[in-house]
Write a structure and sequence with these properties.
This protein is mostly beta strands. The protein has a single domain (about 5-110), classed as HesB-like domain (Hypothetical Protein Aq_1857, Chain: A), CATH 2.60.300.12. It contains two helices and nine strands. The strands form two sheets. Strands 4-5-2-3-9-8 form a six-stranded mixed sheet.
Length: about 120
């Protein structure tokens, strides 16, 4: 499985879809260059998928991943955690071998991305 959503993440994504009038949209999860360590995550809603996107469904959410991001995301778990300081998504990617101090970027053994100055 490329990506696994926890139930908490799925519930929060569904709430965001409803709040933003994006019901029926795809959840796109992607990797882009940038951040201190070279790669960073992207998540957003889209209404059309590309022909070469990988698609899966979890908790009635249609997830799409582009073919370049799929190998980097393989085995990734997306969760949502709530604390007294607020809430946010956490991404556990077994392919990440190093990440920056702020936790917003990473690199893999095969892909160093495009590191930027912090």
């Amino acid at each position: 499985m490329v990506i696994t959503l926890t139930e908490a993440a799925a519930l929060h994504i569904k709430d965001m879809m409803k709040h933003n009038e994006e019901e029926g949209a795809f959840l796109r999860v992607s990797i882009k260059g940038g951040g201190c360590s070279g790669l960073s995550y992207g998540m957003g809603f889209e209404h059309e998928k590309n022909e070469d996107d990988f698609q899966l469904e979890q908790f009635d959410i249609q997830i799409i991943v582009d073919k370049e991001s799929a190998p980097i995301l393989k085995g990734t778990k997306i969760d949502y955690k709530q604390s007294m300081m607020g809430g946010g998504f956490t991404i556990d990617n077994p392919n990440a071998i190093a990440s920056c101090g702020c936790g917003s970027s990473f690199r893999t053994a095969e892909n160093t991305g495009v590191p930027e100055n912090c």
